[in-house]
Write a structure and sequence with these properties.
- The protein has 241 residues and is α+β, with helices and mostly antiparallel strands.
- Helices cover 32% and strands 18% of the residues.
- It has one domain.
- Helix 2 packs parallel to helix 6.
Length: 241
């Protein structure tokens, strides 16, 4: 019988196993869609700008420019999957705060939501949700502590810019809510839960906590963060479209 030497085959297998062990962490990180890194978060900021623009381009669903201009803060959420799942990978977004003295926007901080229901209809797949924080009371969900949007702070559906002149000077609600899904809200029935910092995302992207980003006054926006600010200012009527 002819004898077969397994030594070369065994050597090749050992080399392949060693290479697989070395590459596995890197490969798995690339394949993991939930892994957090600065590049993915930067892309998320870019998508928030695009979602806001898409909402403002929808006929009869635009947020009035003067309300955006008056807002002390703004939250933009992307909600997806059918049902009522919000938070974690089912939804999240960014928040910005306008300095009451300078009128300048903070860098956008990453946020999540804890509990609550944004009323996504059965069968719906995704929605962009914008919350205008109109005064100091409206900013409370971003200041920490247990504050539920729509429960501790009133949140109601805001008026749309449908082309005709509307009087927004009588709007006094702390938080105005807008969304891309039809029939998403029923006025005061809106209950959004608590807005909480996405701590890992903020530390990964900025190396800072949410409160410092929004209220510290020293964090400069990244290019995609500035792009989002420019989009908001454009639709507030402060810059040419």
């Amino acid at each position: 019988m002819t004898s077969i030497s397994f030594r070369p085959v065994l050597l090749v297998l050992l080399v392949l196993l060693a290479a697989a062990a070395f590459l596995a962490p890197s490969a798995s990180a690339q394949l993991n869609p939930f892994a957090k890194n600065a590049t993915k978060l930067d892309f998320r900021l870019q998508r928030m700008s695009e979602r806001f623009v898409d909402m403002q381009r929808e006929p009869g669903k635009r947020i009035p420019a003067d309300l955006i201009a008056r807002a002390r803060g703004i939250i933009i959420l992307h909600k997806f999957k059918a049902g009522f799942l919000v938070g974690g990978e089912g939804g999240g977004g960014v928040a910005l705060v306008r300095d009451k003295n300078t009128g300048l926007w903070s860098a956008p901080a990453f946020i999540s939501t804890a509990g609550g229901s944004y009323g996504l209809q059965i069968g719906a797949k995704e929605s962009t949700v914008v919350l205008l924080l109109m005064n100091e009371v409206g900013l409370r969900p971003l200041l920490g502590g247990s504050v539920n949007v729509g429960v501790d702070v009133a949140a109601t559906a805001g008026p749309f810019d449908e082309g005709a002149k509307i009087d927004t000077t009588t709007v006094r609600d702390p938080i105005l809510v807008y969304a891309t899904s039809d029939g998403l809200f029923a006025g005061a029935a809106f209950k959004g839960g608590a807005i909480v910092p996405a701590d890992n995302n903020n530390r990964t992207y900025y190396g800072r906590e949410m409160n410092e980003i929004l209220f510290g006054g020293s964090q400069r926006p990244t290019p995609n963060g500035q792009r989002l600010i420019d989009v908001i200012e454009t639709y507030a009527g402060r810059r040419g479209r």
